[in-house]
Amino acid sequence: MSSPGPDWLLRFVAPHRRRLALVLATALATTALGLAPPYLTRALIDDGLLGRNTSVVVGCCALMLGAALAGTALAAFNRWHYVTVSARTLFALRETLLAHLQCLPPRFFAARPLGDLMTRVDGDLAEVQRFLIDTLLAATTGTLALIGLVAMMAMLSPALLLVAVVAVPAQLAVVRALRPRVERQTRALRERTGAISSFFIETLGAMKLVQSAGAEARERTRLDGLHQGLLGDLRRLEITSALAGGLPGLIGGVATALVFLAGGAMVMEDQLTVGTLVAFVTYMARAAGPANTLIGLPLAWRRAAVSFGRVGEILAEPAAVSDPASPLSLPAKAQGALTLEQIGFAYGPSAPVVLDNVAAVIPGGAKVAVTGASGAGKSTLIDLLHRHYDPTAGRILLDGIDLRHLPLATLRRRIAVVSQDAPLLAGTFADNIRYANPSADDAAVRRAADLAEVSAFADQLPHGLDSRIGERGATLSGGQRQRLAIARALLQDPLVLVLDEATSAVDATTARRIIAAIDTLFADRTRIVVSHHPEALANADVVLTLQRDIARATAPVSVGLVDSGASQPLAAAARFTIDGEAVAMTEPGPDRLGHGTAVADIIRQTTRAPLLLAQVFDDRAATPAAVAAALDWLVEKGARVVNLSIGLTTDRAVLREACARAVAKNVLLVASVPAIGPTVYPAAYPGVVRVTGDARCQGAEIAFIGTGRAAFGASPRNAGPQGAGPAGASIAAARVSAALAAILTEAPDLSATAALDRLAERASHHGPQRRPEIAR
After folding, report:
1. Could you give the domains of the chain?
2. Tens-digit pLDDT profile for residues 692-708
C-alpha cells in the first residue's frame, strides 16, 4: 500500500465522533464558565469594593464559587470521556499496525532492527495519537475559548485589544522560523531512541556471548557513545523547544506590559475603571494559553509528522500475501498431496532468481527429503509452502487447490513448520505447546510433550509442563527449544509437517528417537524434511534436490549390503528400513559376529538411503556363488551402490561375472582391501571401488589416498555398536557406500565414473582432512 495520508487517521476518530462531540460540548461549557470570573471581578472591584456595597461582594463571590464548582464537575466529566477516546484511538492504531506487520514477509523483519520497530510501534504511534486527539482537541477548544476571550476583551476595551494583538504577528514569525529545525531534530531523536532500544534488545539477548567474550566494558562504552549522542539530540531539541515557547512568551510579556501602560494611563484619565483593567488583563492572561496552543500547532504537527512518516514507512510496505477474495475449501478427505508446478521465485524485480522451474509431485503421506547447498532455496521453498510469499512463476497445489485460493488461516493450520531457530513465547511449556491449538486438552498436550521428549526435562522442574520458560525460552537450551517447537507442531495435527533443520540442536541419538516417533505418528501425513541429520532424512519416499540452476525430485538411491545380516534388536532401535530375503543358501544365519549390524549402522548414520540387505551365511567366509546370487538379487531390486562386506573362499570366477553384470547396469560396487595380508576381496574386478583402512586416514571421514581414481580410505574410528566391530577397511567401505548413494541421489543421471570423480573432489587429495589451526 502507499504511504497513508491525513484522511487515513480520520477513520480512527470517526467511531468516537459522538463521544468527541460530548467532550467538545463540555469543554465549551467549561470555557464559558471560565469567562464569568474575570467579569465578576470587574463588578466586585468597581461596584462592590470601590462602591462599598457588601451585597455585591457577597453575590460576586457566590457566583464565582458556583462557576468554579460547576467547572470542576464538567472538567472531571470531560476528562473521563476524553481519556476513553484517546486510549481507544491509540489501541486501534496499534492493532491496525500489528495487523499490517502480520502480513509482512520474514525478510522485512530480518532487515529491521527490533528496537527500531518497537520505537515506531510505541513512541511514534503515541506521538501521532497525542496530536490527533490531544493537540487537535486542545486547538479546537482553544480556538473557541480564544474567540470568547477576545470578544470579552473587545467588549471591555477595543483600544486595549489593539495593543494586545500587536504581538501576534511576531509570535507567528518566530514559530515559522523554528519549524524546520524542530522537524529535523525530532527525527534525529526518534532514530537515536530506536538505536538505544535495539542495543538493549541485542545485548540482553546475547548476554552470555558478551560475558564469554569479556566484552562487558566494550558494550558499556558503546552504550555510553549512544547516550552521548542522545544527550546531544535532547539538548538541541530542548533549546529549540525553549526558543519556540520562550520567545512567543517573551513577546506576550511585552504586550502585557504595554497593556498595563496604556490601561494605567486610561485609568488615570478616568477613561477606564480599575475593575475593567483588572478584568481585561485577566482575560488576556487566560488567552495566552489557547493562543500559545494555536501558535505552537505547526510545531506540534511537525513533530507528529515525523512520527507519522516513520509509521507510514511500515504501512507503505506491501503485504507479501493476502486472503483470497473467493476462498476455496480443501476436500473433506484431504491427504496432504503437494504439487509444485514449475515454481520460480525472486525477492524482487531486480533481485536474483532463488528458485527456477522447481517441479515435483508429492503424494499424500509421503516423506520428502529436501537437499541442496546453502543458498539453493530450501528455506525459501518452505516460506512458499507456508505462503509467507507467493511464487513469481508457477503455482503450488495442496490436494489439487492452489495455495493462493485457500484462506491463510486454513493453510497455515494444515501445514505446520518447525524451523531451526524454534521461536517461543513467554509463558509455560504447556502454553507454548498449545499455542497453535488453544482448545487442546491437557492430555493431548501431555502426549505431544512425551512424543517430542519435552517431558524428559520439563518433568524435572517443580511445576512440570506448567513451569515458565522465560522470555523466548531463555531458560532452555537450543535442543530443548527445538523439541518444544516439535511438540507444538505435533499438537497442531497438520496435513503437512515441515521440519526445517528442526533437530539440528539435539544429539544424533535424540534426533533418531524424535524422528522415529514422528515417522510413526505421521505415517499417513506428508512430511517434508530439511536436515543434516541422516536420521531425519532416512526412509524418504522422494528426494527434492535444489541447485542454483536446477531442481529435481527423485527417490533416494538404494544401497545394497551383502553380509550376514543385521540383528533385529539393533534394527528396531535404530529404526532401520531393511528389506531382504535368503538367497543362494538355506536359512540365513544370525549375525554372530556383529559385522553386518555394525556396517549397516554406519551406512544408516550417514545417509537417508533405503538399505537392501542380502544375507549370506557368514561363518568366516561366504562362497563366491552365494555372493554372486546376492549381488544379482540386489541389482534386480534397484540398488545403485552395493557394499560387498564379505570374505571369499575358493574360485572367484563366478563372482567376477556377477560383478561385470552389475557394472554393466551402472551399479557401483564397494569392497574393502586389507592393508596387509592376503587379498581375499574382489578389488581387481572391473567396476569395484577400492577402499582401504590405511593408517594415514586417521581423523578423516573419507580420504582420496590412492593412485587410482577409485582408491579411498577412512578412519577406522566409530567401529559401531558391536564391541570392536568391523575392521577399519569395512568402516571405510560403509562410509564410501553412503557417500556415493548421497551423490547419486542428488544427481541420479551421473555415471559411475562421474560419481567417483565427485566423491574424489569432496574427499581429501592429500590424505586425511585436518582441523584448521586458529591463529593466536
Report:
1. 6-183+234-315 (1.20.1560.10), 338-546 (3.40.50.300), 557-762 (3.40.50.200)
2. 666 666 666 676 665 44
